[in-house]
């Protein structure tokens, strides 16, 4: 059974581009063997990640992330059974924040900032769908 999980967290300490690249590289190496696909967004010290795959694999990875000391304030935004993957082309894609139009953020929230703590999980999921539709995700497989 396939599931899609979306969570948000705050970086427990500052994350630079080199560390973010290392996180993405590790995900791209590990996820295919687990049957997990997804997308990661990082902005202003906040992570938003979508994970798709088998229920057990996704649940185990999420539990590991919750216990990871690099994450604080972990919040489950959405969790659903799915018939098919939305992010099947990405072992772990990354939102290209340079291509993110502030008007898109205003469409789903009160301000033009990426803050999943201030909007519903459904609004954040809709934002991710729009990012895929506008090719604002990079790093396929």
Describe this structure in words.
This protein is of the alpha+beta class and 141 residues long. The chain has a single domain (2-138), classed as Alpha-Beta Plaits. It has helices at residues 17-34, 55-67, 102-108, 121-133; strands spanning 2-11, 37-43, 46-54, 71-82, 93-95, 137-138. It has a six-stranded mixed beta sheet with strand order 4-1-3-2-5-6, with helices on both faces. Residues 2-93 form the BLUF domain.
Summarize the entry for a quick read:
This protein is an alpha+beta fold and 141 residues long. Helices cover 36% and strands 30% of the residues. It has helices at residues 17-34, 55-67, 102-108, 121-133; strands at residues 2-11, 37-43, 46-54, 71-82, 93-95, 137-138.
Relevant terms:
141 residues; alpha+beta; Alpha-Beta Plaits; 6-stranded mixed beta sheet; 30% strand
Straight-line N-to-C gap: 22 Å
Helix content: 25-40%
Sheet with the most strands: spatial strand order: 4-1-3-2-5-6
Helix-and-strand structural type: alpha+beta
Secondary-structure arrangement, i.e. CATH architecture = 2-Layer Sandwich
Give the rounded overall mean pLDDT: 87
| Approximate shape | globular
The name CATH uses for the topology is Alpha-Beta Plaits
CATH class (first level) name: Alpha Beta
How much beta, percentage-wise?
25-35%
Number of helices: 4
Q: The biggest beta sheet, please?
A: 6 strands, mixed
Structural domain count: 1
Please give the radius of gyration in angstroms.
Answer: 14 Å
Which sequence of SSEs, written as H and E, runs from N to C? EHEEHEEHHE
Number of strands: 6
- Residue windows where pLDDT falls under 50 for at least 5 positions: none
Protein name: BLUF domain-containing protein
InterPro entries: Acylphosphatase-like_dom_sf, BLUF_domain
GO molecular function: blue light photoreceptor activity; FAD binding
């Amino acid at each position: 059974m396939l599931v899609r999980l979306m969570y948000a967290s705050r970086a427990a300490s500052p994350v630079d581009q080199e560390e973010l690249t290392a996180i993405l590289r590790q995900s791209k190496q590990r996820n295919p063997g687990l049957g997990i696909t997804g997308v990661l967004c990082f902005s202003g010290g906040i992570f938003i990640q979508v994970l798709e795959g088998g229920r057990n694999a996704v649940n185990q990875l999420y539990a590991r992330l919750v216990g990871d000391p690099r994450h604080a304030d972990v919040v489950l935004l959405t969790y659903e059974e799915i018939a098919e993957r939305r992010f099947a082309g990405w072992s772990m894609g990354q939102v290209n924040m340079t291509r993110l139009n502030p008007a898109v953020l205003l469409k789903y929230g009160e301000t033009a900032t990426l803050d999943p703590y201030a909007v519903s999980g459904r609004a954040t999921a809709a934002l991710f769908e729009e990012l895929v539709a506008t090719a604002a995700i990079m790093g396929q497989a």
